[in-house]
Amino acid sequence: MKALLFAFLAACVSPALAQETPASQQTLPTAPAPGTNFQDLIVPPGPWGRTSEELLPYLQTLRFEWTSADKNEARSTSPGLTVGSQSVSETLIRLKEGKVASLILLYYSRGNSGDINKRVFEDKLKAISDDLSAITKVQPVERGRIAGSAVRTDGLVWNTPETQYTLEWSGGKDMATGMYRAEFIRLTVLPAVKEQRAIGAATPSSYANRDAVKKFVGKDKVERLPDSTVRITGIPMVDQGEKGYCVVATTERVMRYYGAEVNQDELAQIANSDAKEGTSVSAMVNSLRKLTSRLGVKIKAIYSWDINEILDILKDYNRAAKKDKVDELRIEGNVIDVQELLSKADPKVYREVRLKKTTDFGRFQREIARSVDEGIPLLWSVNLGLVPEKNIPQYAGGHMRLIIGYDPKKNEILYSDSWGYGHEEKRMSFEDAWTITSGLYRMEPVGT
């Protein structure tokens, strides 16, 4: 039996996101202009009440980009973003009803910045803490660990009359190597506790529990259009950036849709993701199964490649290739590199072979319709490059998407990629979708 090398990788570059300003105005400075220093948004009383129009100078100067067309979230990885003495590697501004609801600042993540040792990690934490005490003019209190989060983070909280600042971090012994591994340092800035319920914001850990997910009602999220389209609404966009985090970013989107405020860095930690090499789908699935009681979700593999499935596909492909007089796919050595093999496949022959799997194809179609009708998006692992696709930053290799709808009249699925603005909703024929499918997973609240 040959070993199976099959990890879904997303070594893609974040695409340039759509801008509404003219091309001549799209070249932005790399350093903050006077009056648009990002720290202005952090200091008390905070940015609460500011509209997207009032944020525009910050968004332009500091290279923020909307992550989706609804403009509920803007993201920046600009080197000009600093708070106190420390630079910030990634920042999210989230809005609710057109006004700022929260800021999330990622000072450090393994996915963005690579590995650092324990001393550097702890020195950075101290510097950030000192900066926040100086900015807020109050001393922090220990938040302790929250058992309901995806990972058990440590935390400090600074409370001012208008604003709450929660610094969370995670790091510890790597079970595989025995060495210390820093994971992330994250600051969440929210309105003061007395206002949180009215605004509807929460720290990335406080809502990640069974109680939040229990409130989810999927059928309320399903929209049926006159043209026969059925689609799920309200799924937040997550831009994975330049990290190979398509699996964990897609999982974050589903969890946030259900009400559990996890993020891709927490999920990358539990799945042992690598920013360059990506995340193994099987590792993510196994990790989520272990977290069922903590997050209130369960996950089921509707369709998933294994070694026998791979070998059957190769056998069928080579039989068809010989008949059509194209090159067969040959396995060399004791490891099957699936992505390498598929990069050599003839797309037409491969498509014909896949569509002959009529039983699996029929089940694929039925499960999509059933899940979408229930308001359950499907995690969809695919092999890019086997059917034509326009305007995507990754043109080959393994990738994970969300299936969010279907159109029986046009015989199409609706899907979404974690690449930000412009990738919220796209269409593909059922036949092409099945051709590139390597896995389909249903993650749903416990009890549904």
TrEMBL record:
Pfam family, any one: Peptidase_C39_2
Signal peptide bounds: 1-18
Organism (species): Terrimicrobium sacchariphilum
Keywords in alphabetical order: Signal
Peptidase C39-like domain segment(s): 350-419
InterPro entries, alphabetized: Peptidase_C39-like (IPR039564)
Name of the featured protein: Peptidase_C39 like family protein
